[in-house]
Design a protein that fits this description.
single chain, mainly alpha, two-stranded antiparallel sheet, 17 helices, 2 strands, RNaseH-like_sf, HAT C-terminal dimerisation domain-containing protein, protein dimerization activity
């Protein structure tokens, strides 16, 4: 394996990042993988590995390389957005915009066609010594309705690759639209609370949006938010000179200028918006920390100690900033026994 600079990654069904890492590591060093397999297949010292290497080499053709290039380009776009969505500081409106931009990039890939992918796949095949030829025909079977003759449709291998390319992108964009539909709806409900919308949207429209929000979240927000939004529209320019301020900046400004008593429902709305999680990645990481905290050497750890240890591990940045001298002194002063003589 001296031909490979990066270890080939395994695929996992539960982690999106593993899909990209597995494809990208093979894509970046496909030539090295071919060379390693050829070395194994010609060296009898590997025993059964010779037959396995030969079997794998037979599966590497232009069609395989085409799909490798295609998936690397698609997953590259998704992987980077996926990493951004896992950030603990991202809000729902930012996540919605990122997903919309991802849909636009996938649509542009679809509109531009697959000729660039075909050209790159042929170039890779020529470099590593694989035949850059496609099979002559494939038979596509479709569902036969009553009264029709059962016959397959013959298409060329080139047409098959093109159909698969469009099928993958269409399916992916449809799934993303369905999966993130609720997130987009929530972002639309709170959109009028952004600094830009407050400054440019007419008062009557803001009142309508506020009334709709109060109806939807009637357990936390009452109809008084209609009057609060009218008041706050003209105050936002005074407390926020920057119209590109985030929802968190606006909430901090409300607290700073003590407007929370004047606009309690508005403050609740901002808190609701900011506390809605975009993903469950942070929660999943917390559960992953349990395996590191409660090892087999700590199998008798009590629940109380496990909970406290997990919090210290999860909030390690805050833990590192604590001065343990002060903690020890506080603990000693609490536990100290005073004797009166």
């Amino acid at each position: 394996m001296r031909c490979l600079k990066i270890t080939l990654k395994t695929h996992s069904d539960t982690r999106w990042a593993s899909k990209y890492n597995a494809v990208h590591s093979l894509y970046c060093q496909f030539g090295g993988v071919i060379k390693a397999l050829r070395d194994i297949s010609t060296n009898p010292i590997f025993g059964d590995g010779v037959a396995n290497a030969e079997s794998i080499l037979k599966q590497f053709d232009l069609e395989f390389v085409y799909f490798l290039v295609m998936w690397d380009k698609i997953l590259n776009q998704i992987y980077r957005v996926n990493k951004l969505l896992q950030s603990s500081n991202i809000s729902i409106d930012q996540a919605s915009k990122m997903i919309n931009c991802l849909n636009v990039s996938l649509q542009e890939m679809r509109d531009s066609g697959n000729e660039q992918i075909k050209t790159e796949a042929i170039s890779i095949c020529d470099k590593v010594g694989i035949k850059s030829e496609l099979k002559i025909k494939r038979t596509i079977k479709r569902k036969v309705m009553s009264g029709e003759n059962s016959s397959g449709e013959d298409i060329s291998a080139d047409q098959f690759l093109t159909l698969e390319y469009y099928k993958v992108l269409d399916n992916m964009m449809a799934q993303m639209k369905w999966r993130f539909e609720q997130l987009s709806n929530i972002a639309d409900d709170f959109q009028f609370l952004s600094a830009h919308s407050l400054s440019v949207t007419p008062v009557e429209k803001l009142k309508k949006y506020a009334a709709d929000l109060a109806i939807k979240y009637n357990e936390d927000i009452d109809q008084e938010i209609i009057n609060e939004i009218e008041f706050f529209k003209y105050q936002v320019k005074a407390i926020l000179p920057d119209l590109n301020a985030t929802a968190l900046n606006i909430l901090n400004a409300i607290k700073k200028y003590e407007l929370d008593s004047t606009c309690p429902n508005l403050m609740t709305a901002y808190r609701l918006f900011l506390t809605m999680p975009v993903t469950v990645a942070s929660g999943e990481r917390s559960f992953s920390k349990l395996k590191l905290t409660k090892k087999y050497l700590r199998s008798t750890m009590s629940q109380n100690r496990l909970t406290n240890s997990a919090i210290l591990s999860i909030e390690h940045e805050i833990t590192k900033s604590i001065d343990f001298k002060d903690v020890i002194e506080d603990f000693a002063s609490i536990k100290s026994r005073k004797f009166k003589f």
